[in-house]
Amino acid sequence: QEVQYKNFPMVPRVVFGKGSFDALGSILMSKRKHSDAPFIFLVDDVFEGKELVGRIPAIFNDLIIFISADEEPKTEQVDVLVQKVKDDSMEPPSGIVGIGGGTVMDLAKAVAIMLNNEGSSSVYQGWDLVKKPSIYHVGIPTISGTGAEVSRTTVLLGPEKKLGINSDYTTFDQVVLDPDLTYGVSKNQWFYTGMDCFIHCVESLNGTYLNAFSQSYGEKAFELCKEVFLDDLSPCESRDKLMMASWHGGMSIAYSQVGVAHALSYGLSYLLGVKHGLGNCLVFQHLEEFYPEGVAMFNTIREKHEIRLPEGICANLSDGEFNTMITVALSMEPLWENALGKQWRTSITPAKLKSIYQKI
Ligand code: NAD
Ligand code: ZN
């Protein structure tokens, strides 16, 4: 039997450090095709009117477009943005820069792909369906945890499914890691997105797909998460370390897979629009059967930081609605196989999943 070796693309360039955002101007200068080929900055609208916007190195015909992260990215939204960029710039852009959390970074990746590929972005949801390289794109995270800054996917809600555009062209060409940009994230959101990273580590390290490559990143990310969430670091050290935990957590799942929490969280998100970080937390707290040590640590962290998770989310759902979530969750086959092995179908039944959703 032929072994399938993944030939995994990595981010080829990265800067790290407090204040490194200010290196962006010179980084982009060398990538400007000419003065009529603008850079398009997609920026989380939480920064509208804030000091950071004044530091964006927009010159010539560059465009700054503010994006709301209230809802997760949609294929339709990507298509509208691509059309807007085409209409508003005289020449094909020099590149796209995404400044924000997983939501804005995923949009930036998708827009960069779609500026060079035909049709609707929904056509490319899946694995390796993108035909032509994307335009130059830069990711600048302003909240830490998703690993979207290193991954080769951009997760989009499409007309039929919530699924990533997984391709070698998705990965950013450049990332700027400036931990100071995460200053100002609310405590709840810090916890939700940070726990996304923690859960990436637990699911990767306890999965059947684990290998030395994933383990080396997963263990480092897990160690950093423990320091950030259980020790008493200075705020500055904590921001630095969580940013690197996110990076390593993302690298860890790149060469393996996520697991039970992500599969169930996708169902919640598809039906109810529950956002990724919160959805993972809502599910993960009830997974002691699958991840006993991880869930115990999660609860310790939650109590230490006095986070109260919403309750009764699934209280009034119909059987049809439960079934929709269950179908979405069960369709994530590689996640189940990673979590439980090839025989996963013997223990994971619709009734089992319903009993977990009913607790949320
Ligand atoms: P997010 O981007 O949705 O942002 C969450 C909230 O934090 C928003 O209200 C946003 O405005 C706010 N925010 C961001 N930075 C801030 C700052 N510096 N100060 C104050 N507020 C700030 O959150 P997220 O958890 O980073 O991203 C979730 C998204 O990432 C989901 O759409 C999910 O599907 C996606 N995701 C993608 C990958 C991938 O590999 N591509 C992996 C995991 C998750
Ligand atoms: Zn995740």
From TrEMBL:
Keywords: Oxidoreductase. The keyword Oxidoreductase applies. The keyword Signal does not apply. Pfam families: ADH_Fe_C, Fe-ADH. Residues 192-292 form the Fe-containing alcohol dehydrogenase-like C-terminal domain. Residues 13-179 form the Alcohol dehydrogenase iron-type/glycerol dehydrogenase GldA domain. It comes from the Bacteria. This is Iron-containing alcohol dehydrogenase. It comes from Maribacter arenosus.
